[in-house]
Write a structure and sequence with these properties.
Elements (H helix, E strand, L loop, with lengths): L4 H9 L6 H8 L3 H13 L3 E4 L8 E4 L1 H13 L12
Helix pairs in contact: 1-3, 2-3
Length: 88
């Protein structure tokens, strides 16, 4: 799967196992955009929802397929890599 920059950014943030609000804060994306991107990533098996499903506010975690796509994106787009320490 070819990732967009937005999908890449969300995948990077899911390494912290965050919910949608936290993903919005981490990425500085609007909550609606985060929801849209996460829905697509879930559908494609790149992230999974864990815990808190009953409250409708699960955390999202990077899957093995998500990691593969993340690494492929970084190999194909070295100039667009976000420093893993810059957003911490």
């Amino acid at each position: 799967m070819n990732l967009t920059f937005g999908q890449y950014r969300i995948l990077l943030a899911t390494r912290y196992c965050l919910n949608e609000m936290q993903l919005s804060e981490q990425t500085h994306f609007d909550k609606t955009l985060v929801n849209y991107i996460v829905t697509g990533l879930l559908t494609n098996g790149l992230v999974m929802a864990i815990g808190k499903e009953s409250s409708g506010n699960p955390n999202y975690e990077l899957t093995e397929n998500g990691l593969v796509c993340l690494e492929a994106y970084e190999r194909a787009n070295p100039d667009l890599i976000i420093s893993r320490t810059a957003d911490e």
